[in-house]
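Priority: medium. Attachment 1 of 2:
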């Protein structure tokens, strides 16, 4: 709890996690029943479905992240997820580039 798993881009690095579109429904990141993780400075892009999917997760932080070029929602927070923080993070939908998620905290 006091020491979350941290995935952080190095200073000045352009880190992208891609899910190649092959006609299937894919996600850049899917977490199920996960806790105490921090993602910082990561760009999730090119997914055929949601860019990021969280289900049954708690205490997950996205800081300075971007989600773009997705088939559906940029970020989907599903069943039983709580204490999910988005700090300077945004998700865009591929078709019209509208902001799909911009909460500070979901509980």
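Attachment 2 of 2:
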């Amino acid at each position: 709890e006091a020491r979350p798993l941290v995935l952080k881009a190095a200073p000045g690095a352009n880190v992208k996690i891609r899910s190649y579109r092959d006609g299937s429904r894919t996600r850049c990141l899917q977490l199920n029943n996960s806790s105490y993780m921090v993602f910082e400075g990561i760009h999730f892009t090119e997914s055929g479905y949601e860019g990021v999917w969280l289900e049954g997760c708690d205490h997950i932080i996205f800081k300075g992240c971007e989600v773009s070029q997705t088939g559906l929602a940029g970020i989907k927070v599903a069943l039983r997820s709580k204490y999910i923080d988005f700090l300077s993070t945004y998700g865009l939908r591929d078709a019209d580039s509208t902001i799909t998620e911009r909460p500070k905290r979901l509980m």
